[in-house]
Design goal:
The complex is a heterotetramer, with 2 copies of chain A and 2 copies of chain B. By secondary structure, chain A is an alpha/beta fold. Chain A has helices at about 5-15, 30, 35-40, 50-65, 80-90, 90-95, 125-130, 140-150, 170-175, 190, 225-240, 255-265, 280-290, 310-315, 320-334; strands spanning about 20-25, 45, 65-70, 105-110, 135, 160-165, 210, 215-220, 245, 250, 270-275, 295-305. Chain A is globular, with a radius of gyration of 19 Å. In chain B, helix 1 packs across helix 2. Chain B has helices at about 5-25, 40-50, 65-70, 75-80, 115-130, 145-160, 185-190, 205-220, 245-250, 250-265, 275-290, 305-310, 315-340, and strands at about 55-60, 105-110, 135-140, 165-170, 170-175, 175, 195-200, 225-230. Chain B is built from 13 helices and 8 strands. Classes of the chains: A alpha/beta, B alpha/beta. The structure holds thiamine diphosphate (2 copies) and magnesium ion (2 copies).
């Protein structure tokens, strides 16, 4: 199944049993038309271009009996929906003395590599994960995407659900490859399409997926970065460097144990992060290992600046297999 | 009129006396941070809140104490909240700007304008799950310039939500006169979203109850959102300890502290030319003068006084009611004292 | 009329042909990502932009190519930008949604509504530094529900900024009909901020130039912001490769891809009851039908055709002009080809 | 001079020579009345409660000849002004191909410890520093505050300028201590009042202030945390633990060298951060040391959850001297 279809399919499975699930967002009657014809127009609700208001409405709807999945066109536009997330959804558990959390899901495409430029290709998962009180999910395969969405629909707190656009056939077609047949994107095949269970089972939050045993290096990533890292791992293997790849799947909660366990063996941590480098995921992972007292060498391949529009600039700025390999080699030689 | 004026007066009085008790505790330093009161807007709160029943929901702004009390929230756990006590309604974690009651479907926020989206979500779930139930957003006129409130007015109109927007207009946004920072009138603003606008009398609870009753019934019938606008005066100014109010009350103590640095800066070399500087002095002095002659000083702006006058025809009953509310407040205070 | 119709037509034609060239390059895969065109809104752009002079500023939305060209931006470096070339106007780092020219005081944004605050800041600096200079915000009607745009309308009114709001109304927000998501009319929305509203004819550049000329002069005189509203049709739909437009153009190829999964989902067990499901099918089909019979198919909605008709009385001059613009475009294309 | 007065005084000094500096924000005609009477009402401009619009306007005003200082009431409210910062101010340098940055200053009170609750006491400096393209300044003394403001007024890019409310006599009086005389806040005396130069000189960005030589532990912090750390340092000294305290002063640019130099000696890094712990400053500092290859032990004292309203809860959640000492001792004993 394709990635976005997997998410929708998990949502559909749960919508059958849970009448309180609704979807809110711009253009949803068209974008989620397949759900609309099955669940009716009352549950798939189009909105004006008012992200702050409808995200905020999603929060209080979630407090008063509904289970809204609020969709934003892109995570970049969370800039105009930050207040309901930072100051409301994330704070409700504390403010209400633990009595009244908001089980809202905020679903957003994210990530770059298809040429929309710096205002439309951000990742921002580490940025959002800085805020205590919300879960942050970044699935990297169709199976995970569906399973994590099912879990999100069972969480009793706000969940930010980020789908990398490169995984999504429909987004990529919507955002530039539709209507022309000649666009080549560096799309990880296993992220975009893969086997999924007949019936969705929840994939638990806070449990990383570990690929291989790394004697020499632990590479940690999420989203598209995971696939880049897996490719790098194969290349490095050929060079006699043994790396494992940890796909965190969720940033909040963070599977610190898996990271520590692996770094304890490898002694080297390489973080691959498409989100901005500073004050983000890579730093947090370094801290997680450092505060556990495990000695380790550290390097990171992250996005350092705003993402340039040009394909060439994009390539230079976003983490890719070559950079991962060369950083891994450097780290190995330390 | 369903609820009689005696009842509405008792709601208002309870709220007033409760907030006066809060004021004392705040002044004693037992309540930390800011404290925004609803003193002066009781008629608006009572007129609307007294009509709400189970399943209706409320999104509050930073002046939530008074509507919460009127909606029947336990006054003791509310006060304990202000005192940061673990038995407070939010276990002492929220404080007066962040009051929540799941049972009553009430949420608050200290973010200007946030009651708009919150009420929209409540109204959306009412539409799905609680037919004929409505949601109410309380906010001040200054909030009308906050994007999210405007967005939520549009959202409510587009989705035809059962949502009552209640604009409590004191024409102040902290120290700024709101009408000077607003393009168009409040009426035009509401109508700019295709929302029916109704002006109520925010000082007279009897009138205001009638007005809101009509509006609320119409919303319950599925006619979509409406906008209720009422003027009022916040008797304590923006919040407790508000500097401008202190200046009014203790001019000799407070004014020099303000004026000395002003003059000092005015006389410094460099800066604008003299004409512009004078303009500056004029701006600042005018705004201070404006405060000194503020409506807050005028008792005819106190909704309690206005209703009380009407009830004076039955002085015995009035005395009785007032005694009983005072007693209630004392009891609340005593229960709280027993706990802390 | 200062600028004659020939001149305005040549502006529009240049923009149209340029964007057709962009379309070809995009289809060839030489331009990455999305591409939003201004085809169909040229009369609005020409009517306004042709009146701007040095020191005036523009805040653009996601359809910035056409106004940039009309304002005199070097077409070669613009095209190079789309191609991601280091000699592009933003060194290939911006792309078509993020076009900037410091010299011309033009900024763009791909964030819906962002042209409002941007134009407000430009207007503020004009007020301080460039007397009688104005700033223009271009945006679509769908953006009118974005908080920041509404906030900036209020800000412009409160500060009396020299700011022209230009609302290009195609009644589409990607796949949503904007009027179904808006409370009140566009006129009421503008007037809700106390901003004078003027309706222009977005299809007829001659008329529109006149209308905007009056409005712009009034703003230059210090009368504060005004709101110019004009209808138009985006001939290519939301952006290049737009699925709904593809469905119109190649229904047999595109429709099955959409309909198969729809039916599949419709027929799955579980979900709404049959009546609601039918309602769902109806909603989706209606919105597709709506697209299939869309105004975009109607040539009377093309502002170029409308003006061209007027100029046909002088066929020779027309031919000459058209040849010369075509030649210009070809030259641009050749210069670009030489570089890449 | 008091802290906020120092900032205003540096602004005034620069306003005399640079006519393009203007101030925008809610209630500024009253809050900055001392500047207003000197520079006239045209330069001290009150706004409606429309943070998104006036911050956005500040950005483009900065692009077109003015030097705006935009004030928000509190950094918490940046939630409604995030778009002009994240998607515009921070991106302009890239988008315009380096040609057209926006020298805007966004000045915001921040920080907790005075009882306003979780929506009004956040720090968010690490959160903002995650965004490439903006400088983030967090001064901890009046002298630094003025000098860094002067430098901010000379930067050719956007600067976020954060003033801890506990340092600010006027904010604290505005927000709760005015009108009553019995409030006790844990205000660092040296942060709130101190000597300042006769004539302001710019304090350069990206240069930390290092307090003492730490043989055993390097404590890094900003804002109020610096003073907590300095007090802790004295206590630890009495116990025979030698710590230095590094006051970063700016997060972007980050003085990596000073941190590394000190940790190289001490071998131990303790981060004290009033901002949220995860995906923030503490992680970044760990990464900065780890990627330089210096072996080190690591611990952090940060804010882990939303900030509770109650004074007791506040104390538990915000970093204080006791926690710093006890974490330092633990770290020392490793
Ligand atoms: C987004 C945001 N901006 C600014 C503030 C600071 N603030 C708190 S109350 C207030 C004034 C609100 O005025 P109004 O809505 O008229 O309510 P009033 O206080 O007069 O009842 C302001 C600016 C805030 N809390 N949130
Ligand atoms: C804040 C934000 N939300 C959503 C989007 C996605 N988006 C891009 S254009 C658009 C529709 C805009 O409609 P309108 O303003 O009418 O302009 P038009 O495209 O019709 O010219 C949307 C929703 C965006 N770019 N920014
Ligand atoms: Mg007010
Ligand atoms: Mg449109």
């Amino acid at each position: 199944m394709h990635y976005t279809e997997a998410v929708d399919s998990a949502i559909a499975q749960k919508m059958v049993e849970d009448n309180t699930i609704i979807l809110l967002g711009e253009d949803l009657p068209l974008l989620r038309r397949n759900l609309l014809v099955r669940f009716g127009p009352e549950r798939i609700i189009g909105t004006p271009i008012s992200e702050n208001a409808f995200t905020g409405a999603g929060v209080s709807a979630a407090m008063s009996g509904l289970r809204p999945i609020v969709e934003l066109y892109m995570v970049d536009f969370v800039s105009v929906a930050m207040d309901p997330i930072l100051n409301h959804a994330a704070k409700l558990e504390t403010f209400s003395g633990g009595k009244w959390p908001a089980p809202i899901i905020i679903r957003m495409p994210c990530g770059g590599g298809y040429g929309d430029g710096g205002q439309h290709e951000q990742s921002l998962w580490g940025w959002l994960a800085h805020i205590p009180g919300i879960d942050v999910v970044v699935p990297s395969t169709p199976a995970d995407a569906g399973g994590l969405m099912l879990q999100a629909l069972q969480q009793e707190r706000p969940v930010v659900f980020l789908e990398h656009k490169l995984f999504s056939r429909s987004w990529i077609e919507f955002l530039g490859s539709g209507g022309r047949k000649n666009m080549k994107y560096d799309i990880p095949a296993d992220g975009s399409y893969g086997n999924v269970p007949e019936i969705w089972e929840p994939v638990p939050f806070g449990k990383a997926a570990v690929h291989g045993k790394g004697e020499d290096i632990t590479i940690v990533s999420v989203g598209v970065g995971v696939h880049r890292a897996i490719r790098a791992r194969e290349i490095l293997k050929g060079e006699g460097i043994s790396a494992s790849v940890i796909d965190l799947r969720t940033l909040n909660p963070l599977d610190k144990e898996s990271v520590r366990r692996s770094v304890k063996v490898s002694g080297r941590l390489l973080v691959v992060d498409e989100d901005y480098e500073g004050f983000g995921l890579s730093g947090e992972l370094s801290a997680v290992v450092a505060e556990s007292g495990i000695p380790f060498k550290f390097a990171r391949v992250c996005t350092r600046t705003s993402i340039p529009y040009s394909t060439k600039g994009e390539k230079e700025v976003l983490p890719d297999v070559d950079t991962i390999c060369s950083e891994a080699r450097k780290l190995y030689s330390l | 009129m369903e609820k009689d004026l005696w009842f509405l007066y008792s709601l208002m009085l309870k709220s007033r006396l409760y907030e006066e008790m809060v004021t004392r505790l705040w002044k004693e330093g037992l309540i930390s941070g800011e404290m925004h009161l609803g003193t002066g807007e009781e008629a608006i709160n009572a007129g609307v809140v007294s009509q709400l029943t189970e399943g209706d929901s409320i999104a509050l702004d930073h002046r939530g104490t008074s509507p919460m009390l009127m909606r029947g929230i336990d006054p003791v756990s509310l006060l304990l909240e202000f005192l940061g006590h673990p038995d407070g309604i939010c276990r002492g974690l929220g404080g007066h700007m962040h009051l929540y009651s799941k049972e009553h479907l009430i949420a608050s926020s200290g973010i200007v304008g946030a009651s708009g989206p919150a009420a929209a979500g409540f109204a959306l779930s009412a539409k799905h799950l609680r037919p004929e139930k409505i949601s109410v957003a309380f906010f001040g006129e200054g909030s009308l310039n906050q994007g999210m409130l405007m967005e939520s007015m549009n959202l409510a109109a587009a989705w035809k939500l059962p949502l009552l927007f209640v604009c409590k207009d004191d024409n102040w946004s902290i120290t700024t006169e709101s009408d000077k920072m607003r393009g168009g009138s409040v009426k035009e603003r509401a109508e700019g979203f295709g929302i029916p606008y109704i002006k109520g009398n925010g000082l007279d609870v009897e009138e205001f109850y009638e007005t809101s009753s009509k509006v609320i019934n119409s919303i319950r019938k599925g006619n979509g959102p409406q906008f209720l606008h009422a003027e009022c005066v916040h008797l304590e100014g923006h919040f407790l300890g508000y500097q401008l109010i202190r200046m009014i009350r203790k001019p000799f103590r407070e004014l020099p502290r303000v004026i000395y640095p002003l003059l000092n800066s005015f006389l410094k070399p460099g800066g604008a030319n003299f004409i512009k500087k004078l303009k500056g002095i004029k701006t600042v002095s005018l705004s201070m003068l404006k405060t000194l002659t503020d409506a807050r000083k005028d008792p005819t702006n106190d909704p309690l006084q206005i209703t009380r006058k009407k009830l004076k025809s039955d002085p015995l009953k009035l005395k009785e009611l007032e005694n009983s509310v005072e007693k209630e407040i004392k009891q609340i205070f005593d229960s709280v004292k027993a706990v802390i």
